[in-house]
Amino acid sequence: MIEDKNQQRTQLSDLGEFGLIDHLTKNFKIKQSSTVKGIGDDAAVLNFEDQKVVVTTDLLVEGVHFDLSYVPLKHLGYKAVVVNLSDVYAMNAKATQVTVSIAVSNRFPLEALEDLYAGIETAAKIYDIDVVGGDTTSSNTGLLISVTALGALSEDDVVYRNGAKPNDLLVVTGDVGAAYMGLQVLEREKEVYKVNPNNQPDLEPYTYIVERQLKPEARKDIKELLKGLDVKPTSMIDVSDGLSSEIIHLCKQSDVGCDLYENKLPLDPQVISVCEEFNIDSTTVALNGGEDYELLFTISQEDFMKIKGNPNFSIIGFMKESKEGMHLVTRADTRIPIKAQGWKNFND
Ligand code: ADP
Ligand code: MG
């Protein structure tokens, strides 16, 4: 949040478009055997041989999806890549390449874009993907980032949203609600900072949830983990908008209903304590928070023993006939219809 007055500021116009692209992308190395030609020609050339290819894209807009007053650009670059990889993993594919397009106003110096690309480079390294292209253009106001991710998999491995059957178990990886509570803490600290810029925030008690917001990770590990357990999900989706909205997607597309158990929702202890501090119901946060980038999937009952007790997974409910509807079964054993609240970018 503190602007370093001594920081170097190189005008983007000093480099020109080609100089800029060259400067930002010179460190990217090709690692995937499916990349024949990366950055530098009119288009990348890829070779997936007999594999199927998945493609997904996301657009992030300053002021709508991120706030640069508390999101460091390095984290933003990292997150922009990771949220796309999450969609690739939700198809049960291996992520292989991304393209990154940016529109940037001249209020950003070169050093800011270097930070953004340092985050992109880190994500590419950690997730073992190639950056094979993109586009660079100017914007009149803020920053826009669009990432397209590609992944590969054999045809038999593809998992869609629409394969869930009645009696299948509903499973989620990791824990939920932390990224949303991290955002609440950051928003609060931003207000405090506005009133008193000398007040440095103490984020120490909130490390986990703030990290989940600023530097989320996608579940690259789950495909191999499930393969090792000999489990193929019947349906799968990643948790970006919030658990309840993703459950509704799986149910509607699979034409099933579902019972979700409140007491099975996986919450980190830090989420529970910060919910108390903010006086917010932790179940509401778990269901509607979003940006968890965990995977939500269904498995056949036959596979129950294969994942039972595995710390990576929580069995949070089971699917029913669609006429039974979608319900949250509360701790008090009442049944509440599941509604999507999620991120309403167009409404609020
Ligand atoms: P074109 O004029 O065909 O759009 P560009 O000059 O925009 O080509 O891009 C040159 C090369 O640099 C291409 O390989 C393109 O994919 C890549 N590239 C352009 N902008 C970016 C960016 N922001 N990040 C990564 N690669 C980029
Ligand atoms: Mg171009």
UniProtKB/TrEMBL annotation:
- Residues annotated to bind Mg(2+) 2: D58, D87
According to the entry, every stretch annotated as the PurM-like N-terminal domain falls at 40-152
Binding annotation for Mg(2+) 5: D241
Q: Which UniProt keywords apply?
A: ATP-binding, Kinase, Magnesium, Metal-binding, Nucleotide-binding, Thiamine biosynthesis, Transferase
Which parts of the sequence bind Mg(2+) 4?
D42, T56, D87
GO molecular function: any one? thiamine-phosphate kinase activity
Q: Which GO terms describe its biological process?
A: thiamine biosynthetic process; thiamine diphosphate biosynthetic process
**Any further remark recorded for this protein:** Reaction mechanism of ThiL seems to utilize a direct, inline transfer of the gamma-phosphate of ATP to TMP rather than a phosphorylated enzyme intermediate.
**What name does the UniProt record give this protein?**
Thiamine-monophosphate kinase
Q: Which organism is it from?
A: Algibacter mikhailovii
Annotated gene: thiL
